[in-house]
UniProtKB/TrEMBL annotation:
This is Protein SCAI. It holds the Pfam family SCAI. It comes from Timema genevievae. InterPro entries: SCAI. GO terms for biological process: DNA-templated transcription. GO terms for molecular function: transcription corepressor activity.
Amino acid sequence: DLPQYGHKQWQAYFGRTFDIYTKLWKFQQQHSLRTSETNYLNEAYSFYAAIRGRAYYSRAAKEDRSDLMVKKLRYYARFIVVCLLLKKMKLVRDLVMELDNQIADYTSTYEPDDQLEWSLVLEEIKSFIKADGVVSVLHADSNTIVLSHRLSPLTTPPVEKSPIMNLTLQEILIVGNCNDQVKFSELTMDIKTSYPLVSACQENGDRPLKRENPHKYLLYKPTLSQVLVFLASGFKELPPAGALLLYLSADGCFSPVKHPEDSTHLFFSLYPGDLYPFTRKPLFIIVDSDNSFVFQHIPRYFGQPLIVLMSPQDVPSTFQDQQHNGSLFTLFLHSPLTAFCFICNILNVPIHHWERCQSYIDRFVTEASRLFTRCRIDSAYLQFFGDDFLRLLLLRYIFCDVVLHLHRSFKGRQFRPRCQPALPDGDLLDHPALQHLVLDLASHLEVRGHFMDSNEMD
């Protein structure tokens, strides 16, 4: 029914159509953040790339409408979020440069009240990108390679399945609440890092996944009531033999000794006891905090499988300044080799060297998986171990514990992670085969001096 002549007559229809597509994209973005289906993210990316390629906003500055310029800036910010999640870092840098120019035009033309806000947005993006490159993997031409850390058939840890391994991860709640951690939009570095941990991808897009990605909620600085509501929602949606994962990246809350009257904020903090009702179904908890160990005594009143992985409560002084750029514990769970290089002060690794080092990690994971199923261990671990995502998290946790135990800078129990129920030391965490693989990796990277020999350990 649209007229085929007169370009001005199209403007109203174009505006309405664009509003509808914007609403559609918002829905897709919310859905993709919850399900982690890369197809939805790719659709959102295609939509934004089409806007950029067709220069839909090219006349925004000429229209002399500040509201249209604000829409353009928001478009850039949202496009950058999508590209960050898809790890299209080259395009991210191009978009940041364009956004920088657009903000300069916007502020010089309109002198708006939100000038400072957009300047802060730009600084957040730049800080986020800078912090994201902890260790650079370099191509032969010295260009940085962006690696995917999503679960794939190549990274799925091997396991000898048994009937007790009957649980599958179905619902996930990821909470980010660190005040001093670098962030962009509602993505802290830990949220972005943990996001691929529980997301699978298709290798080269040629094979469908063996299973769907778990359903996710991502919460940035939520209230206590919001955390409990979303936990209850995930709890309610769990199917039979389904498991719920709660990932907490948050600052610890401590009772003031000198001024007890200042403790009102404690009423709005999350306590271990707040999680008791949710232990009626299989629950897997990861706590990354400087007060993580308070979660190690959650009782199993209902006899359901319950595991709590807790980060170290402290890091050596040489690494404390880096906490602003993301947690070391979450980095170990996300990319063990990146974390290993980081604590050994290795900032750049050629791709051929990286692939060789990754083979040591793969051998460690394979051996740890074998030991895991053969040692005397709490049955809750075996029930969760059949799920690909949770098995990968558990084996990377073991790698983290073994590495930090051997590293000279991490002497002291407060520098090591903990778990509940406790994993066996002699048969698993301190097993010579695992220690030798870590030391072999250190020798290959020529950083053997950072690690103790077995006879030096406590």
